[in-house]
Design brief:
With 191 residues, this protein is of the alpha/beta class. The chain has helices spanning 42-54, 71-86, 100-111, 123-133, 179-188, and strands spanning 4-7, 27-28, 38-41, 60-65, 89-94, 136-141, 158-163, 171-174. α3 (100-111) runs parallel beside α4. The protein is elongated and about 55 Å long.
Length: 191
Amino acid sequence: QLRLARIVASSSWHSMAFTTASSSPSLFSYSPAPISNCFVPMKERERLQRWINAAPTGPVVGVIGRPGVGKTTLASSLAHEQAAISNVRVIFAHCRDRRLEAIAQECIHAVAPEMPLFAGTDVFRAFRETFTAAPAVVVLDDLTDHHRVAQLASPNTVILVTSREPLRVPSVELREWSQADAMAFVAARGG
C-alpha cells in the first residue's frame, strides 16, 4: 500500500522570502510557488527527514529518479518545512548542465553580495563559511555536476539535491507509480 503525505501550503512561507542581488535566471532566493494540494510518498519523505535530523553537521541529502516522478516537489516541500522550523531563507537553484562551482558562487552572492570571489578562491570553502554565518535551506534542483556536492555541507544549512543520476550522498529514489497505486490514489480522492 502506497502511503502519501499531503502537502498543504502555509501562508507564512511568503514572509521568509527575500530579495537577492543575483541576476541569474537560474537562482531564486525563495522556492518557486508554495507547494499546495500535492502528494509525495510518505516513506521517502520520512527517510529524508530522519537523515536531516540525524546529521551531525548540515546535511546534504538527495532525491533521485526519472523526470516527472516528483523529485522537485518532494525537495521543495521539505525545504519549506525546514525553513519554517528553523526560520531561515530558502535558496532554490536550477542546476541542469551547470558546474557546481558556478552554482555555489551564485548561492554565495545571493546571501553575501559583497563577498569578493577572486580567481583561485576555494568556492566550496567560501560556500561553507558563508552558509555557516547565514544558515539556509538550499535546493539544488536537477543537479548534473554532483560528484563533489558533499563538500558544500555547512553547519545549520540543509542542502537538498535532486538528480536523475545516483548521488554520493544519502538519497531516496522516487519511481513511477504502479497502475494499482495510481488507481488507489484516484479512488481515495473520490475519482
